[in-house]
Amino acid sequence: MYFKLNKINFTAIVLCIASSLFSQENLNNSKFKQLHEELPTPNVYRTASGAPGHEYYQQTADYLIDVELDEINNIIHGKETITYTNNSPDVLSYLWIQLDQNIRAKKSHGQLTSTSSMGNEMSFGSIKRMHDQMNFDGGFKLEKVTDTNNKKLSYKINETMMRIELPKALKKGQSFSFKINYHYNINDRLKIGGRSGYEYFEKEGNSIYTIAQFFPRMAVYNEVEGWQNKQFIGNGEFTLPFGDYKVSITVPGDHIVAATGELKNLSSVLSKIQIKRLDKAKNNYTDPEIIVTQKEAEANEKTKSNSKKTWVFEAENVRDFGWASSRKFIWDAMAVDVGGKRVMAYSYYPKEGNPLWEQFSTRAVAHTLKTYSKYTIDYIYPQATSVHAKSIGMEYPMICFNFGRPEEDGTYSERTKYRMIGVIIHEVGHNFFPMIINSDERQWTWMDEGLNSFVEYLTEQEFERDYPSRRGPPENIVQYMKGDKSGIVPIMTNSESILQFGNNAYGKPATALNILRETIMGRELFDYAFKTYSERWAFKHPTPADFFRTMEDASAVDLDWFWRGWFYTNDCVDISLDQVKWFKINTTDPDIENPIAKNQKEKNSTYIGKKRDAASISKTVTEKDKGAVDFYTTYDPFKTDVLDRQEYADFLNTLDAEEKAFLNSDKNYYELQFSNIGGLVMPIILEFTYTDGTQEIVRIPAEIWKRNNENIKKVFILDKELMNVKLDPFLETADVDLNNNYWPARTEPTRFQLYKQNEEKLENPMQRAERAKKQ
Amino acid sequence: MTKSLIFLILYTILPFHDFHVSHTTLHYNKGQESIEITVRVAIDDLEKTLETKSSGKLKLGSPKENKSSDQYIKNYFDHHLKISINEKIASYHWIGKEIAKDLHDIYLYFEIPDCNTNANIESITIENTLFLERSHKQINIVLVEFGVLTYNLNFTKDKNRETILFQN
Description:
Chain A has 23 helices and 31 strands. Chain A is an alpha+beta fold. Chain B has a six-stranded mixed beta sheet. In chain B, strands 4-3-7-10 form a four-stranded antiparallel beta sheet. Chain B is about 10% helix and about 40% strand.
């Protein structure tokens, strides 16, 4: 077939095309290279599909703990019996136990390896904190370590880890029980920080205790890490085996205790009226019922009991245990229907938390359980608790400690409200990641924080329309991702070496998953795969490879390029629409094409001198003197003559019907040229606006970059003429530079310019209130 | 005088929100011949740094916002974000502030007007010590946008001064 494309018009915008110097080594550096070399080889424990293998095993650790709070001296005294079961095919000759409190021991590695420097100017608070941390006598004081017959066991403490020598090697299926008696000083959270500790209320002399990492805990042993005994030095949180817990907590007689698990001795610690209210709450699925009222809590905090009470809690198949105790606690409860099963949502808070907490805490807990259950697995535990704890958010199975405190006058800002609901959703959400889907936090912060921040975003958006979520929408991660590479590390970085912790381990993975869901896989495929991962690894220990593989396995979407780019590099998205060329088919009909060509030629001659000459030269020689005129003086190459028409007719006779239709189709051919400046390959999403004002969205998968990761061209055959083209019109790819996303070129106003433009119109809420008063 | 303090080792456990990063953009507006300064910081960091016994609570962005907030902020930035053009300190104006959509951060706007009247800009020196007195882990990121030239700088306690030379 013969027809020629004749370029009659092209408009090109050439915007700083980065000449990406790609290393020309004899290696496969394609961004679409499969991840086989990065991921561990599949085996009988973990399959290539991302599911647990047929030989998958995990260890169990059951605990019997008696713990007592010495409120006067702020000391925890504990006695525990751990029963450890070896389900692995390996023979173990020793056990590793985690002593997390030792991070606060004097001269701990946590302190020694934390870099620090002095400034000429330091706030009083930060110097005081340094002193308080240095002077605090923290860490577990072990009183005895014995077998169940009280025979001493040989052990060695290395910082936050303790190795116990087993009297007899532990084979597959065998269990070993041992006992540890210990105590430790509880840290004042507000003075020296910490995930647990106490907050002291000076006016009344009471404290709120939020207690965790309060007992020596078994380390995880598996086929991935052997013993996960990487020291606890601050950022990398916890890795723990599942087991059953029975914990007796002895506290002053007027305290209320919240904890992991179910309270087993209600009648000996609660009043009759409290038990009655609790029963009522069990059938109230719409509003929280108050179990301990604010009035009762206020009366309670005025005196201090000398008696003691022991609260007994039991929890099955959990990886940890946390609790909170205070005589300041108000307590409310509500029933939640999760897949036809009743789960209780509890909140414990002092009067200082109201009015926010009584209105929102339990409601946020209930909403979180329902939404997470929808996207992952049905919540299996009997209850979920939110405890008020100033300025932190920290998670344990069935219980978490959350900030959000109104002003002393009872008012609160919008920010306090939404951040409190946000932190409760986040920390309750941790029940799913990592408490149930039990990833290794010591190694990979993103596996629980990133996945959890993603579902947190979905949950917040279901709590209230346009909820002011911090992490999730692609545009929120742009500032981080376009930052200097020396300040960024890939998501696949060990927890202790992460730079910009919040953006790296929370924000970026949450955004990446959001982009997978909305842009790359679509909601249906994503949700199914994400749920499959949750179901496969609930109550097990997943690794990054298990997640990456499952997401592909359950969706038939090859995501290796996505994991490689977003998780293994610190590249960003910056796709540039470099050029748009417009082509029309040359009909070769001289009566049509010659006038077009003539018109085009005239348009192109825009030299300023010619324009001026037209006016300033009244007559040229050939215009004045007929003797200077010949054939070429008046020859018009664009004039159609009889021969042209004859040739055209001859040409038409050589074409069949289909070819003739093409020739007369009047289609517009647009060649768009893109370059990848940021490094990440991503789908190309285009908004075409036609000259008649109509619009069309075109979505091209990321695989368009599969043969050339840097520069590509794509032709679009359109009926209508284009007026403009916009790349990433819905801000869904986290493109860090929008100024190269338009044809014709356009520069986006900066945030500063938008603010300044609106400045006159803006008034702050105070000015508005003043104005309202005057009316 | 440099206060001499014995070398101490500091360890802080990070609470949930406590990640300490600020973002500043210096954008050269060719038409206006001005430098537009946009700073994004956590409201918590800003408030906790600026609030003193005499100032009281700032309550930024709330109906009860401290009336002198803008002054406190401007004064703090004059001391902790110093910008020199061609080796001369350039003072900047307060334009305004705006709470971010996520209610976690606040945008602060400043402007250096008429900064290219006589000569070309040959160098910019930035000294950024924002919030370093409060947290030694603070990272201050500055993006400098001069037309097609962009520079991306990280400031920390150990590296709080950077100079960019524009090659003509």
